């Protein structure tokens, strides 16, 4: 009963505490210096702290210096909690989150911190493919949105967040129940929560999503940690180094990885610029070919128009001669009369040609009977108008 009352009081207190979601003018609430390395994980080899899974719903493995998480199932997320015990009450956590693919609108990748046993508490920070982030709190087995609202699912658009396929540097600093959250070295959230003293760390991948984590570092300012961890894959070598050297090495690694991420982003931008230039070059080539084709058409049209123009010039010269003839009144009437007479004669000629052709056609359709070339004219024939008649021919 006392525990339940404490949780209720803690939730009420958390809701009453001023919580800022706008990074404009936001000032950090955690100013402590964390100069001791508690955990160093670069995922160079499969260690004992992180679960590996391979089945029809999930593929979780360490590969090529990354912790790869792929959720094949299209519904509900999948979470992994590190097997090391984090008993730190004040710490600085630095990690990278790279969402590579999201087949659903709920696709995401995130980190869990201050996780309580039995899933009864903790915080989940997630990013999605729409360049949005959200922070949720697990309270008595249910979610509370610490960013956004229920209508938006807690998601907030941010220009600080890198596009899908690029790594994002995420950092948590906590001390005395205060929390500062940084995204790509920009303070985005500050809040307080008195319910948790310490908690574990893990990662979460959304439905139909794939992402990877490049590294995880935990720094603290606490002394005499019984469960202090230096490196999950090579404890002996790091334990032998002084704290200052370890911190310097860890900070150098974080700086180098951050620089690599920045160079990767710039490389992607350059690839897009080159691709755009190639596309523009191809479009220019197509445009030039089309222009050359149109130029050839225009040249052919100009040549054709020039020939027509030359022909018109020749005709115009003939017309100018005619114009000169009709220019004066004396010769003008004569030429006009001659032109009219010429036209009338042409009409008569056409009529005679037509009549002649008709006669030829008539003769061809009604030919005259042929004469017998062996028959001689009869000298004994008398004309009818003289009353004569024809006698039969005598035999010799």
Can you describe what's shown?
The chain has a domain at 12-240: Sandwich (Jelly Rolls), CATH 2.60.120.560. The model is unreliable at 1-22, 232-242 and 379-396 (pLDDT under 50). The chain is built from four helices and 17 strands. The protein has helices at residues 2-16, 235-239, 243-325, 329-365; strands spanning 36-41, 53-54, 58-63, 66-71, 78-81, 91-102, 109-115, 121-127, 132-139, 142-145, 156-157, 168-175, 178-183, 186-192, 200-205, 209-213, 216-220. The protein is an alpha+beta fold. Strands 1, 2, 3, 4, 6, 12, 13, 14, 16 and 17 form a ten-stranded antiparallel β-sheet that branches. Strands 5, 7, 8, 9, 10, 11 and 15 form a seven-stranded antiparallel β-sheet that branches. Helix content is 35%, strand content 26%.
Shape: rod-shaped
Summarize model confidence as the mean pLDDT.
Answer: 79
Strand content: 25-35%
Largest sheet: 10 strands, antiparallel
CATH fold field value of one domain: Jelly Rolls
For the record, what is the CATH homologous superfamily label of one domain?
Exo-inulinase, domain 1
Unreliable residue stretches: 1-22, 232-242, 379-396
CATH hierarchy class name of one domain? Mainly Beta
SS elements, strand count: 17
Level-2 CATH architecture of one domain:
Sandwich
SS-derived structural category: alpha+beta
**Count of helical segments?**
4
